[in-house]
Write a structure and sequence with these properties.
The chain is an alpha/beta fold and about 475 residues long. The protein is built from 16 helices and 20 strands. The strands form 4 sheets. A 6-stranded parallel beta sheet has the order 7-8-6-9-10-11, with helices on both faces. The longest helix has 16 residues.
Length: about 475
C-alpha cells in the first residue's frame, strides 16, 4: 500500500511535532500512544482524569483536564487529533480550523502511519448494518486463510494494527469519515443512507457527504482516482444516485438480479456474483432481507480482495451474529421476546419491525433530531401495542397518536435501574400468544443506559426473570 499523501507527515515526520489530542477514551488514548512512540510532543486534553490519562502522563504526554476544553490549549500546537465525537462546531475544533491547523481523528492518523508492511483496508460505512457487515467480511477473510480482524468503529483502534495482518475489515462511522482528509481504502462500501446524527452533522447532505469519502480512492468528492472501487447498495435510491456520480470504478449489490458480471445480487434464492453462486439466502444469519444485503456487501469486498466463492460461503456458514442485533431472547407464555437494542435510529428499527407480523414495540431514548413519523406510519398496521421510555418518548407518543390513534401505548417515566423491568412487564400485558415483543428503540441509549449493549442486557435479564422453568430461551 502507498504511504501518506504529499504534504502529510510520514511516520518519521511526527518527531518533535506538537500535537494536541482531544479526548482520551479508547481512540484518543491509542492515537496519543502512537504519536508518543514516534517522538511527537503530545498534549492530551479531556474533561476528567482517568487511568488512561494517568498512563499517558507516565509515558511522557502533557495532560490537561478541563471542562469545557479551552481554545488556548492550541497555543503552539501544530495539529489537532480529535476523538470522533467532537462535532465541527465544537469551540476547540473551530479555533483549530480558524488557525489553519489540520484536524483529524484516529483512523486518519492510522492511514497516514501506514508503512510498506501495513495490511490492506476493506472499508464499510452506512447508516445501519456496519458491524454485521464487517464481521461477516472478517469471517470470509478468515475462511480464505488470511490474517484479519474487524476494527475501526468496532474493536481495537486502527493505529494498533499496522503490522501482523494481511487485510483488515474496517468499520467507519460518519464522524470518523468527516475527520479524514487522505484516508482512501482501495475498496469501500456504503450500505444504506437514512437520517441519522443530524444533531452532529447539521443536515442530511453533510451526513451523506461524509459517508461518500469512503469512496475517495475511486475519485469521490473531487479526490484523484487512484484505481479504487466504490461499492454501493443499488436498492437504496440515495446510495445509487451518489454511486452513479463517482468517476472511478464502481459496482453494486441488490436483492434482485445482478446487473452484470461484476455485480452482486440474488437469483433463485441464492446470493450470486454475476453468474457465480455464493450461498443460499436462507442460510444467512441473522435472518432478514437487510442481513442478506449486508452479506452481499461483505461478499463484494471479499471478492474484490480475491477471496474465492468457497471461502465466502464457508465464512457465512461459520458466522456468528454480534449481540443485540435482532437476537431472540426467550418465549414466555407464547410470546417471543427479541433484543434489537442496536436499532438506534428509525431506519434500523424499520428493518427489525418489518421482520415480524405482529409486534409489541419497545421504543424510545435519544432520537438525535431524527424524525419518526415516516417510521411509525409504515409499521402502524403491524403493531399490537407500544411501550415507550427515554427522554424523547413524547415524540414517539405523538407520532403514534397521529398514525395509530387506537393503539394501546404505555409511557414509562422511570429512569432508574429497574425501569426496564417496568417496560417488559407493561409489554407482556399488551402482548398475546404469537406476538413478538421487540426492543427496537429507534433511538440512542445514553439518556438512561451506559450503552445500547447495556440496554439490551437489561431487557434480556427482565425477560428471563419472567420465564417459567422449561420454557425455551436463549440461555438454555
Amino acid at each position: 500500500m502507498s504511504g501518506p499523501a504529499a504534504g502529510e507527515p510520514a511516520a518519521g515526520g511526527y518527531a518533535g511535532r506538537r500535537i494536541l489530542v482531544a479526548g482520551a477514551a479508547v481512540a484518543g488514548a491509542a492515537a496519543a500512544h502512537a504519536l508518543l512512540r514516534l517522538g511527537a510532543r503530545v498534549t492530551v486534553a479531556d474533561r476528567a482524569a482517568t487511568p488512561r490519562t494517568e498512563e499517558l502522563a507516565a509515558h511522557g504526554a502533557r495532560v490537561a483536564i478541563a471542562d469545557p476544553l479551552p481554545p488556548d490549549l492550541l497555543d503552539g500546537a501544530d495539529e489537532l487529533v480529535v476523538s470522533p465525537g467532537f462535532p465541527p462546531g465544537h469551540p476547540l475544533v473551530a479555533a483549530a480550523l480558524g488557525a489553519g491547523l489540520a484536524v483529524y481523528s484516529e483512523p486518519e492518523l492510522a492511514w497516514r502511519l501506514r508503512g510498506p508492511d501495513a495490511p490492506a483496508w476493506l472499508a464499510v460505512t452506512g447508516t445501519n448494518g456496519k458491524t454485521t457487515t464487517v464481521t461477516m467480511l472478517a469471517a470470509m477473510l478468515t475462511a480464505a486463510g488470511l490474517r484479519t480482524a474487524a476494527l475501526g468503529n468496532i474493536g481495537a483502534p486502527l493505529v494498533d494494527a499496522q503490522t501482523g495482518y494481511d487485510v483488515l475489515a474496517v468499520e467507519l462511522s460518519s464522524f470518523q469519515l468527516h475527520w479524514s482528509s487522505t484516508l482512501a481504502p482501495p475498496a469501500g462500501v456504503i450500505l444504506n443512507l437514512a437520517d441519522d446524527h443530524l444533531e452532529w452533522h447539521g443536515t442530511f447532505d453533510a451526513y451523506a457527504g461524509a459517508k461518500t469519502t469512503i469512496w475517495r480512492a475511486a475519485g469521490a468528492g473531487g479526490a484523484p482516482d487512484t484505481g479504487g472501487l466504490a461499492l454501493g447498495n443499488r436498492d437504496d435510491a440515495q446510495v445509487a444516485a451518489l454511486l452513479a456520480a463517482v468517476p472511478g470504478g464502481t459496482a453494486g449489490f441488490t436483492l434482485g438480479e445482478p446487473g452484470g458480471p461484476d455485480e452482486f445480487g440474488v437469483r433463485a434464492g441464492a446470493l450470486v456474483h454475476g453468474d457465480v453462486p455464493l450461498i443460499e439466502a436462507a442460510a444467512i444469519r441473522p435472518a432478514g432481507e437487510h442481513n442478506v444485503a449486508n452479506a452481499l456487501a461483505a461478499a463484494a469486498l471479499a471478492r474484490f480482495h480475491g477471496v474465492p466463492p468457497e471461502a465466502v460461503r464457508e465464512g457465512l456458514l461459520a458466522y456468528r451474529p454480534e449481540p443485540h442485533r435482532n437476537a431472540y431472547v426467550a418465549t414466555v407464555d407464547g410470546v417471543g421476546y427479541v433484543d434489537d437494542s442496536k436499532a438506534t435510529n428509525p431506519h434500523a428499527a424499520l428493518a427489525s419491525l418489518t421482520a415480524y407480523p405482529r409486534v409489541v414495540w419497545i421504543a424510545g431514548g435519544q432520537l438525535k433530531d431524527v424524525p419518526v413519523d415516516d417510521l411509525v406510519a409504515r409499521v402502524a398496521d403491524r403493531l399490537a401495542g407500544a411501550v415507550l421510555l427515554g427522554v424523547d418518548r413524547h415524540r414517539l407518543a405523538e407520532a403514534l397518536a397521529r398514525h395509530a390513534p387506537h393503539l394501546p401505548v404505555v409511557s414509562v417515566a422511570s429512569t432508574h435501574d429497574g425501569a426496564m423491568g417496568e417496560v417488559v412487564r407493561a409489554a407482556a400485558e399488551l402482548a398475546a400468544p404469537g406476538d413478538t415483543v421487540l426492543l427496537a428503540p429507534a433511538a440512542a441509549s445514553k439518556d438512561m443506559f451506559a450503552s445500547y449493549a447495556r440496554r439490551g442486557e437489561l431487557f434480556a435479564e427482565a425477560v428471563r426473570a419472567r420465564r417459567a422453568p422449561g420454557e425455551p430461551g436463549a440461555d438454555q
